[in-house]
């Protein structure tokens, strides 16, 4: 029982460090490990004990954000949720993650860091379902549509001033359906 309590405490400490690092590095990408430790409410040695270097910390942040990104997609269950509902829910969920973990998710300038094979497979499932149900025009290049969709999400997440994920999701979905959707199709 005591070992489990130590593990839970250790996991909370790591989570606090990751969240503090996201906040601090978003404000100041050149921030030191000491500044991150202070923001997390732990000692610098605690941060170094968990993460051997700044690069190791940033890599852990990216892995954490990537898992959050995957979970945001998977939680919608795009294989069984009505496709238009899934499109909106996935978009809003992913925007919430991107707005919260922007520094970590943008460490890969090519965007490939979070687009793991599992994430791409989930995206492809719901884009195929959108096509099968007639929400997308026949003959649309689904890979291109997915790439445009991901680029729209990325751009929407850059607008920190209007960081309402639901409003941004509506804009992204309207844009996707306006460009690729069946004429006259609306989500409202």
UniProtKB/TrEMBL annotation:
Keyword Iron included in the entry's annotation: no
Portion annotated as DNA-binding: 32-51
Protein origin, superkingdom: Bacteria
Protein name: TetR/AcrR family transcriptional regulator
One Pfam family of this chain: TetR_N
Keyword DNA-binding on entry: yes
InterPro entries noted in UniProt: Homeodomain-like_sf (IPR009057), HTH-type_TetR-like_transc_reg (IPR050109), HTH_TetR (IPR001647)
Origin species: Amycolatopsis silviterrae
Keyword annotations from UniProtKB, A to Z: DNA-binding
Lineage, opening ranks: Bacteria, Bacillati, Actinomycetota, Actinomycetes, Pseudonocardiales
Boundaries of every HTH tetR-type domain copy: 11-69
